[in-house]
Amino acid sequence: IKSYGCQMNVYDAERMADLLAPIGYRMVEEAKDADLLILNTCHIRDKAVEKVYSDLGRLRRIKTSRETSTHPMILAVAGCVAQAEGEEILKRTPYVDIIFGPQTYHKLPEMVARAHRETGTVLETEFPLESKFDHLPKPKARGRYSAFLTVQEGCDKFCTFCVVPYTRGAENSRPTADVISDARSLVAGGVREITLLGQNVNAYHGATPHGTELGLGRLITELAKINGLHRIRYTTSYPAEVDDDLIEAHATVPKLMPYLHLPVQSGSDSILQAMNRRHNIDAYRSLVDQLRHARSDIAFSSDFIVGFPGETDADFQSTLDLVDEIGFISAYSFKYSPRPGTPAAASLGQVPDEIKSQRLKTLQRKLSALQAAFNSTTVGSKLPVLLDGHGRYPGQLVGRSPYMQAVHVSAPTKQLGNIVNLRIEAAHPNSLAASYEGENYRRAIT
Ligand code: 5AD
Ligand code: SF4
């Protein structure tokens, strides 16, 4: 399974593997070794979509070379491109055997059986009434210390640039008992950190067994009671739907990490309005202030789109000013990509590509400088790091700081899975180097 795009796709890919294990499939590294190859695709920007079609072209050769073997390859396209362009895939790449959207992958074993049985392409891109979550096995820890857990899917916000409401469907929250029981089984399997996932995770309102509903802040408070779970994160946030309970959770739940991805998209009120974002810059500022008041060490990251239709030099300057004002410690930034069927794609005032490229370069330079500056401020201090993997060099472990910085350290393997206080010795643009002070570590639960 090859995943493109967001963390939700990474999570979905694992769940597909869980569904296929009982019928005899296991993961392989190389496309040429796969009996079933699934591209779990992303539709968010044009580039991501074109990548899928070019990968399909290459895979066709592998598939053809195995046609006469005892194990012909089944080729499947999943995810948001499948959902949005099922018919187009059929036309452009008729050699694909299965096309299925994000809401139907619980039927994967049945689709694979049909692909073996039938000629032609199996197409499953409906939004079924039943929830796929009711048909998925419990998620597995798989030897990891940090795991994703989907709590909410879909989006009703219809930002004018975005395909997600069309590909992932309407907002839908999983019942709290299901989320808590999945979290417990991940923790029982050794997971120490859980990142709650949702396209608009702030819209979470899960049904409780008492017939009431719980928002994200209170769900986090409940999850924090699980012994052995040391860190909680959530993503992706929609600023206009961060409520008081969630802000309160940042103040009262030490396990909730002081790092928040809070996409603002633009620093200009008129562009935000054209994007249908439902927050203006004053509201965003005030939200950041409230969160900082709740947890003084909280740090922010964001997504930015440059060259949205109608964006002037002055609008772009407002974005640069906001970046300085908030001091984001990391961010993703993109050139606006017109997506078929979204309102902004038909707007007048499309910005020429050269201007988009220039603006992106300017913004990314500023964001990188801020990230480097933040990384430098940690040098000489101690940070609690969840050591969750082996580094590139012998004896090296890697982990994450509370602020999602990658940290490298020479430390004994037995520290894997522990949160260890490490002294930060050096800052690189995208990571930190730390020293480990023998057995004398303090186990920090933050
Ligand atoms: N063009 C460019 N960037 C986009 N994003 C979403 N849609 C588009 C688009 N049409 C960005 C937003 C969002 C992130 C996941 O992708 O910044 O937050
Ligand atoms: Fe897309 Fe996020 Fe806007 Fe929903 S809130 S439409 S997922 S950008």
List keywords for this structure.
446 residues, alpha/beta, 5-stranded parallel β-sheet, 5-stranded mixed β-barrel, 12 helices, 21% strand, binds 5'-deoxyadenosine, binds iron/sulfur cluster
Globally, the shape reads globular
Strand composition percent: 15-25%
Bound compounds, please? 5'-deoxyadenosine, iron/sulfur cluster
Beta strand count: 20
Q: Please give the largest β-sheet.
A: 5 strands, parallel
Describe what you observe in this structure.
The protein is an alpha/beta fold. Helix content is 34%, strand content 21%. The chain contains twelve helices and 20 strands. It has helices at residues 7-20, 46-65, 79-92, 108-117, 164-167, 176-188, 216-223, 244-252, 269-274, 281-294, 313-326, 353-377; strands at residues 2-3, 36-41, 74-78, 98-100, 122-124, 146-150, 152-153, 172-173, 193-197, 205-207, 213-215, 231-235, 259-261, 299-306, 330-335, 382-390, 396-400, 406-410, 419-427, 431-435. Strands 1-2-3-4-5 form a five-stranded parallel β-sheet, sandwiched between helices. A five-stranded mixed beta barrel has the order 16-17-18-20-19. α7 (216-223) runs parallel beside α8 (244-252) and α8 runs parallel beside α10. The chain is globular and about 60 Å long. The mean pLDDT is 95.
